[in-house]
Queue: 4 jobs
Job 1
Amino acid sequence: MRRPRETGWTGWVLGGGSLLAAAGFAWPLFAAALPEHAQAAAPIVAFALVPALLVALALTLDREMYTAKTVALLGVLSAVGAAVRIAGMGVGGVEAVFILLILAGRAYGARFGFLLGLLTIAVSSVLWGGFGPWTPFQMFACGWVGAGAALLPRIRRPRLEIAALVAYGVAASYLFGLVMNLWFWPFAVGTGTDVSYAADAPLGENVASFALYTLVTSTLTWDTVRAVTTTVGILLVGPAALAALRRAKLGRPGRPARAATPRSTSLPGGGTRTHPSTVPGAAAAPPTGPRPSARA
């Protein structure tokens, strides 16, 4: 079965929107602003991503996503992901939701994985009450995690595919922490330290300061726990979950199957067979009728 194409005009537009979102993440490296100005600008940058999220949502729902079964599965997996994410809140770095995003994105494609990431964060934020300037950034970052798994090369050997997904999950865990640190880094720490943002510093110096900041505050702690959690989860449930998701994908509704009709047992003249024969060419049993009475 051929995999659905992820390219086309919707793919290009979604790619362009992702580039704009990436610019929103990386704005501290290109916009000279003092930390107090950056703190005031952060909500503006965050909510400027909301229209891009709406456009991405509309464009992703193309014909490939119109089937009722796909929409229902997307809703179910979004609810499951939201529940998993809420259950893991408060435990530093445990992001079991990455397991779901990676496996579902791999099985159903980049657009499905992207949408699943967006909706998982949205639903969990509504249920948990965690909406804030960080929410649009989390939605895009998790959408990228789900979509990236589908963009890996096709691997026919199941064990090699699981190994590739594990490697991808580790890389995605660290990159997620890095980009989520980037957008609020200018006002996360004060001025005058080795990890502080300097508005008048050259780009290379700010990059080095940010790298040290994210290494100390995230990479060695939260991101490492997330990478370990994702690795263990994919190794434990990956093969079975991928097989189940792909079976559900192959079972998408198409032409209705023809109902089996029972073989007629009637004979010419209105008689019936006592035991329908299964042997080709076998003689039919004589028609049944009233037996003569023994007393006649």
Job 2
Amino acid sequence: MLIVMLLVIAFFSYRSLRFSSPENLQSILVAAAPFALIALGQTLVILTGGIDLSVGSVIAVAGMTGAVVAKANPGQVWLTVLAAMAVGLLAGAVNGVLVSRVDVPPFIATLGMLTAGSGVAYVIGGGAPVNGLPAEFGRIANTEVLGLQVPVIVMILGIVALGVAMRRTSYGMRVYAVGGNRVAAEIAGVNARRTLFSVYAVSGLLAGLSGVMLASRVISGPPNLGQGYELDAIAAVVIGGASLMGGRGTVWGTALGLLLIQTLNNGLDLLLVPTYWQDVIKGVLIVAAVAVDVWSVKRRA
């Protein structure tokens, strides 16, 4: 996949001089940042053999909540961010309880949260976006530190922190163990229910943070914010080499898959390729990645 990434960059650099400009590269990173957070959470879930379809709706609910809190408390930026993250954590915790305690299949549990969350987002705004927000709300995602916007810094820190945690800590080992063979993990002393609960809670928390950053970028709280984002997050994880059966995949692979998708989106936009053709290309890439994964597993077996 790294070779594919380099070939894509070389192709777009050849076709468009604007693509390799520093401004455009920064645009790719800014666009990737909110997706990176939900893709990181999705990585943990998929490593356990599950899936989280609710992150798109959680983004919308968290973004709407953050907008409402910001409007009622102008100047209280941290309160806005904490409120959005709390909403995301609550949604993730509900998913975690349903999957780990009630034994609802992850697809059904998170699909229910996807539907319910979409409705709650519209309820919060009374069916309309939350507008008229203070200027401080826009600074959450549009402030620069050392030449990088805050979402990009959050993305980098998130990738490094989670990457180290999954490779160097016992928590990462437990996640891989549960996804690889839950029965064997429990026999070895791993609390599988607690591990499953934690990955869905983390996924919801990161989706909440992503929601407030996305809403801050547009300085508004649209109820359809994040619609369809769960599919791009899953695509990034799968393209990055994770197995949908669980137990195999890396945070670094997810980061590479995410950057590949965002690079494709950016390059195809510069070449004025219609959106529907972009969807076709991404769909083919996802199927190809899964096909290669299945082929490699059979070859090793």
Job 3
Amino acid sequence: MLTDLIIRSLSIKAFFTDEGILPIEILKQYNWSPNYFSLHALSGDLSWQIVLFIINALCIVLLTIGYRARVFTFICWVFLTSLQNRNPFILQGGDDMLRLLLLWATFLPWGERYSIQKKSSYANHYFDWANIGYLLLPASVFFFSALLKTSPEWRTEGTALYYALSLDQIRMPGGNLLYQFPLLMKILTYVVFYIELLAPFY
């Protein structure tokens, strides 16, 4: 979540203010529902967005160290949903998955381990419906994603990663480095496909 927030903060003015590509007035006119909420859409000022980003980052840090984990999980979910609703045109499937995983996590006692809490009343093994939802969500996304990868780029040629990294808008510094090694990209294409297909069963 913190990495996602840092990446978004690099384009905070362009994507989340009225000076950018999607002023609040346009957002409300063309892509808004009465069911949406967004703290980030309360004002188009840069200073308002900076304050929200800082508060969001602090909440993520508190969640990471396990301080009142359930409360801060919910608060982080509210901030994440708010941020995503502010500019839905820059979202992709991973954003939806992060938001849904965070929602499921509000029902898990994940502040009971590796947190600043001194004692825990929970046993080392914990099972609840929230576990099932939390595990099935990414497993189903990976598995069904693999089933949809029927083109030769994934199954026989192994060129899918090459084509993905050929798009400048999604190639980050790591992609620039990887792009120099075509054989490695071919191997990684197959690795990704089979991990997505088989990992959910483990």
Job 4
Amino acid sequence: MCLAVPMKITKIDGFQCTCEARGIEREVSLFMLQDEALTPGDNVLVHVGYAIQKVSDEDAAETWALFDDMLAAEI
């Protein structure tokens, strides 16, 4: 199973960007989304250092809510 994490772009420099999620910053490659119009403030799904899909604010928030629910669930 693969897991992609929604992150917000804070800075773009060519095909590299800085993304933030819950206080954690990461350098992320935009190479796979080079034909997508991206700006700081956009949300992307990040998997192993690559942005793989642009997502809405609502989808990003819903994904984080699901992660929170999974972490809170008793197993």
